[in-house]
Amino acid sequence: TYQQVSWDPTQQKFIIRHRPAGDFTYDPQTSAWQRFTGGPFGGDVNTHGIFPYDPDVGLLTLVTASAGRGVYRLVGNTWQSYDYPPQEAWCTPQSVYIPELKLHLVQCLGWNPRWYKYDAINTRWTVLTGIPADAELDIDSFDYDSVNKMVIAVQHHAGVQKVWAFDPATNVWTTLPIPAIRPTRALRADASAPLLRYDPNNNVFIFLDPDVNTFAGSTGTWAYRYRRPSSGNPVLTVTADNKSRAYGAANPSFTA
To answer: I need a surface site. Which of 104, 148, 221, 230 has the fewest CB within 10 A?
Structure first.
């Protein structure tokens, strides 16, 4: 649950923070799991998250609970104290890494919701301002589109209801058109991992749409592509169930 899995390219393994069972590595080549100890648990499961891999500092985890609050860096299979976050109240952290800016975009959703740009090299936190009120509170999942250099964020309190694009170079948020064909079952991310993940090899977002109301039945898998237009409003392409539709702001209907 939450953002507790990250890929470590140096080990070629996944790092999993599993409260309260501990921390694990998972090798997809051998299907081998290995537990390692000494990790900062940080109390409840929703008070810690693992960042995407940062090529300059490696893997980081953020703990926001009062017990163990801090940023920790993975050295070998040991978490070492690295930095202290500005957020005093607990929050549920999610983040993406922006390689062109060498920054992490961090969402802290909780009693005092905040968004930060985090320069892990220089341990510098910058509060992000100018966020639309609905985006600040309502975003459940987001990831970075490395082709278009945009962060795409979605609200999925009861299926996908809102979509935003955020330009991390200019700090500009844009509300995107809502595709008529979209996931309808996924609930908010309070007790689930981020459901939106970007595939840079194919320039496409993958969104999982689980039946969380019954925890039974199938999980829908959706593909979602953002295309930056040469002018005018953004254009979205949504692919699902082997059907593709394109949506343009000037033409408020899907066309085959």
So the answer is: 230
What are the residues whose beta carbons fall under 8 Å from the beta carbon of 224, sequence distance 6 or more? 152, 196, 204, 205, 206, 207, 236, 237, 238, 239
C-beta separation of 161 from 178 below 8 A: yes
pTM of the complete model: 0.82
Q: Residue 235's pLDDT is what?
A: 47
Identity of residue 40? P
Beta-carbon neighbour count of residue 16 at 10 Å? 17
What average pLDDT does the segment 201-214 reach? 80
Among 46, 22, 43, smallest CA distance to 33 is for: 22
165 — pLDDT class (breaks 50, 70, 90)? very high
- 251-255 and 22-27: which strand pairing? unpaired
Residue 18: band (very low, low, confident or very high) from pLDDT cuts 50, 70, 90:
confident
Ramachandran area for residue 68 (φ above 0: left; ψ -120 to 50: alpha; else beta)? left
Helix (H, G, I), strand (E, B) or coil at 44: coil
Long-range contacts of 125-131 (CB under 8 A, 24+ apart): 125/85, 125/86, 127/86, 128/171, 129/171, 130/171, 130/172, 130/173, 131/173
Task: Answer for the pair 23, 35: CB distance below 8 angstroms, yes or no.
Answer: yes
Residue 143 near residue 164, CB atoms below 8 Å: no
